[in-house]
Structure formats: C-alpha cells, structure tokens
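Q: How do we represent a protein-ligand complex in a form that can be generated token by token?
A: Start from the inputs.
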Amino acid sequence: MRVAVTGAAGQLGSEVVKSFSSAHEVRAFGREQLDVTDYDQVMQELGAWQCDAIINCAAFTDVDRCETEVERAYATNALAVRHLAEAAESSGAQLCHVSTDYVFDGNADSYREWDPPAPLSVYGASKLAGELEVQEVSTNWLIVRTAWIYGHVGRNFVKTMLMLAAEQTQVEVVDDQRGTPSYARDIASAICGLVRRRRRGIFHVTNSGETTWYEFARAVFEEAGLDPKRVHPTSSETIRRPAPRPRSSVLENFALIRSGTGELRHWREALTEFMSNQEEL
Ligand SMILES: NC(=O)c1ccc[n+]([C@@H]2O[C@H](COP(=O)([O-])OP(=O)(O)OC[C@H]3O[C@@H](n4cnc5c(N)ncnc54)[C@H](OP(=O)(O)O)[C@@H]3O)[C@@H](O)[C@H]2O)c1
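Then emit the structure tokens for the protein with NAP bound:
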C-alpha cells in the first residue's frame, strides 16, 4: 500500500508511521512538511499522489486552548479535514480520519458508534465538524474515534504525572471523569489493520476496560515504583478547567469487536508495556 500520514510528528501520527513502515510505502508529513490548513499545499502534496490512503492524525489537541482559540480549532479540526477529503477524492485515496470521545456529552455510561454526539467543548464541536466534513466530501472514508491517548513523543497525562511526582509529595487528580487510557502504539496498530483491510465507516478504537483519571494516575505511580497513596482524589468542581469534560466518555468498541478484529488489550497491560519501554519515554 501507499500511505500518507499527516500530523506525523504527534503522539499517534508517529506510531501510525511506524506501524505502516515495515511493509508499506509511507510519506510522513509533520506540520513543517505540510500545514493541513493550507488548501493549496494540501492539494499540491496529496491531491496528485496516487496513494491508497491518507491518514489524518493532525489536530489542534489542546482542549483548553481551543476554548479561546476558536478560529484555530475550526481551521485545523474541521476545515482542514475538508481539504484532506478533497485531496483524497482527487487522488482516489481513502481518507482515514482520527476523532475523539469528546464528541459525546458524557451523560451516558458508554457510547457506541451510532450514539448521537453532543460535544460540550469547542474542541469536541470542532472535531465533530471534522467528522461531518469527512462524510460529506469524501466517498471512501473511515473515522476512528479514540480516547485518552499517551505515547512516547510529546506531552501526555502519564508524563505529567511522572513530572509532578518528581516535584511534589502529593498529587491531586479528578475522580469523577471515566474513560479508557489508550496506548498510541496499540491504536496505531489497529488503524493499520483497518486501513489494510479497507474497512469503512465509524469505529471506536481504545484499549479495553475503563477507569478514572485518579485510578489511572495511581496505576502510573505503581508502575514507576512510587507510592500510589501520594495520589489524592478530587473533583472537577475543585479543579476547574476552561473546557468542560464529559463525565464518562467510555467508547464501546462495538464495530471493531464484531468485525473480526477482537478487542484491544486491557489499558492496564498496555500501560505496563509503555512504562517498561523506559528508553522511549
Ligand atoms: N491526545 C488524546 O488524548 C486524544 C484523545 C482522543 C482523540 N485524539 C485525536 O487523536 C489524534 C492524534 O492526537 P495526538 O494525541 O497524537 O495529538 P498530538 O500529539 O497533539 O499530535 C497532533 C499533531 O498535529 C500537528 N498539527 C497541528 N496543527 C497542524 C496543522 N495545521 N498542520 C499539520 N499538522 C498540525 C501537531 O503539530 P504541533 O505539535 O506542531 O502543533 C501535532 O504534531 C487527533 O485527531 C486527536 O484529536 C487525541
């Protein structure tokens, strides 16, 4: 297969590039090589290259900054996806677009692929707008919604916890938001499988199981050989953030499991592997 990956320097994009590189021809575009908000550049780089799939991992992912940088959120997470969908159409490629659990409001305990989205934040609304662009503009598409990603490059919750553990004796973490921590390497491998099998439609793809940020933080401490009692539960009311988060954004991997792929390993097992790859941290 010939595959183009946008946002290739990010947590997920870098793993998607690795997943495909062993057996496929991959062109990896970090932001420096391709700004997805630039229509002309997108069409020039991708519109004419006869590839099988364009995998869009580029996004403005700072959920709190999206609340104030609304134009940038929509330019990157919505309009740029239209550009990529047009490029995919003109090159005959499938567009695989990565989206988020934050398209849901969190009032249900878990969500299937067909549940109606109702985003609470600008980030979630802009990502939902991107999903709509995919479906309206491209004829051959795959949307992968994932959640709570951590990987070896860039910033994430696991690295933040380890940094706080080095600086503070106690760490307070919210215990009233549920979701599924997901290892970027596992998500990338599942994306690779779906694209290679030319699957279409919406798939929820996370590690299995569910937890809260508080329990996740305790697990990080345990894996690092630190005392998990140093982590204290608190509430979203106490630690106010600019963007509201869903109370529960557990994604049921309904389509993935019933399409012969099986479920991804449990989040706790994936975390153990991530933490044991210390040289990559
Ligand atoms: N992180 C999570 O917990 C999470 C959860 C659910 C879904 N997702 C989704 O998963 C996907 C990958 O997320 P991630 O965690 O890998 O995020 P990430 O590490 O922030 O990677 C996103 C990449 O996109 C790049 N980018 C931003 N604006 C761009 C532009 N205009 N043109 C080209 N590249 C641009 C970023 O570059 P700069 O760093 O230079 O800005 C970054 O390298 C996104 O679609 C995200 O919405 C993430």
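The CA atoms of residues 69 and 276 lie 37 Å apart. The mean pLDDT is 96.
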